[in-house]
Structure formats: structure tokens, C-alpha cells
Amino acid sequence: MTDSDKQNLSSDDLMKSVIQRIATGPEMSKDISREEARLCMSSVLKGEIEETRSAIFLIALRMKRETDDECLGVHDAIKEVTKSIQISQKDVINIGDPYDGFTRNIPSSAFLLPVLAELGYPTFSHGVECIGPKFGCTHNITFKLLGLNVGMSNEEAAERLENKKIGWTYLDQSQFCPELYNLISLRAKIIKRPVITTIEVLANPIVGSKTHFVTGYVHKAYPPIYLNLSRNAEFDTAMVIRGTEGGVIPSLKQNGKVHFYSSKNDKDKLCEVDPVSDLKIKQEVRAVGIPDSFSKLNRTDKIEAKIDPKKLAAESIKLGLEALSGKDGVMKDCIIYGASLILKNITNDDLSVCGKAVKEVIESGSCLDRIKK
Description:
46% of the residues lie in helices and 12% in strands. It has 18 helices and nine strands. The radius of gyration is 21 Å and the shape is globular.
């Protein structure tokens, strides 16, 4: 059957055909084409497929393991319904931290945004308030507690990026891709992470004349997948950092790995970094620890017991504001590490040079003014 024939099938008939092939067990399941994946995911996003079949499609892809073409097809469908806006800035940084947030450490990546903006690079992150499988502390929750409007439109977010006195912002999936956001309840019923969880962090709702993408990973199979999808998203550069809890900031107490490309036509590259020798960061902990006084919630309906994400966000804000005031500690080191890696990927300067620049803007106190705008 040709791609043209597949396009002439009804949404239900195509989905039935695809499920019959991808959901037949670990040895008999067959791969589908990029176009089939695109058409099926597009039908799911449009609400043309009933919930049970949509869930089977997503979980069957996961169970047989998605191919590159299947990932690209799903990504193509999501790109088609994602609102995107072009702005005039040359270098825009797009940070895709895990949409399901953080549960094992106090997160620090939200504070990269004002630091990078102060260095002259408009920076934004994106996500949702709460989603599985971790249902952790997200940028949405953190920025909302800081008083930011987390439901702003692409145009409103772009205005913040173009304002040299601000230069950072956050966009929520509910605004730039409501079709995907509407699948949150279905994804909660699926429980395990579907292919959507991998792909949604590659959202490109604001595009500069040059856009630099940053995301994190835990499992070693993901860097080539993310970099392949980054090219499909048309990011000019991309870096995939082995970070704590899959975020963009590596462990402070061991060497880090950064997979990247410096232009879309380049081959994937790997850079190893040493926080001690490269940035003089000496810590005995991986990230900002959760205080022992924080009690865990008994969430039997979720994947793991965890701290109230709003409580984690409040602690993150407290420590983050202290760090941007120049107070030494684990939070400040996390911010310096993450911002220095991102700056290095854009400027190609030595990491030590980037670290010095980051420290200078933090210790000047100017980043603290930006975070409050």
C-alpha cells in the first residue's frame, strides 16, 4: 500500500491497520512508516480516534520500541498543530526540561533563564503544570509562584524576549499546542511514558534567526534520538546533556556528558566535562538536596511517592533568589554549571571562560532584577 493509498483510508481504518501490525507481541510486531505514524498521530490529536484505540497505538509503539521513522512521524504531526512565532533576535535559547518535573532534588534550571538573558541571549522554557509519570515540580509551578503569567500567548512571550530589560519567558503547552495538551488525561491512564513524552520537549513555539535547543537525558539511547528530532524541529544547534533526573544540569560530583551538533549539517559530537577542573566546582552532592524535614505524600495513584511539587518550587525559589544574590552553595553551582555549558555551545569559548562570565553576572546582582520582571 502506497502513502497515497494510506491517505485515502479513513482515520479509523488506518489506525486499525496500524494497530494490527504494531501490537502483535515482541517478536511479531512490525514497524510502520513515517507517514503512517504522522497520519495516525494527527488523527489522535484531532480527536478522530476514540480513546481506547489512541491508548493502544501509543503504548504499542512504546512496547515494541519506536523506530526513528516512527518518532519523526509523530513529531511531524505535533509540529503541524504547534503555534510558532518568528522574532528578530539572532540567538534564542530554547530550554526543554522534563515536562513531568523533578521529585528527587530541588530543581535549579528555572534560574538559568535570567542569567542567560543577562548575558545577552533571549531564553525561554516551556512545559505544563503537572503530568506523569513523575508529576513533579515544573517550571510552570515555579514561575507561577514567582508571579509570572504562565498562560501567556506566543505573542506575549515574544514581547518579553524582545524586551532587553527582561529577555526571558515561559510558554505553556496549553497555549502553543492545545491539541497535545488535551491528551493529558489519556496519558495519565496509560501510566507509562509514551513517545509523546520524548517528543514534546522539542517544541519550537518561538524561533529566532538562530535558535539553540537544550534538553537533558538519563538513558544512553536517547542522545541520537533527540539530536535527530532536533534537526527535524529545525533547531540551528542542539545539545543533549546527561543531567540529574533527565534535566539540563549535570551532576556536580562527577564528569558530565554533552551530546551536540553545532549546525544542522554537522555530525553528532560528544563532549565530556569535569566540574572540578573546568569550573572549579567541588561538591559532594549531585544536586540541591531535599531537606529531611520535607514529608512525602502518600500518592498511591501515581508512579512514585514524592514531595508536594509546590513545596519543592517554593524551596527552589528561596535558594534560587539567594544564589542570584551571590550566595555560595549548591544551588549557585548548579546554575553556574548549566549556564556555562549552554554558553559554551553558543560561543565555542572554553568552559572556564564561560564560567567566569556567568559568575560575574550572578555576583553583580543584575540577574536578580531580571527574575522579578
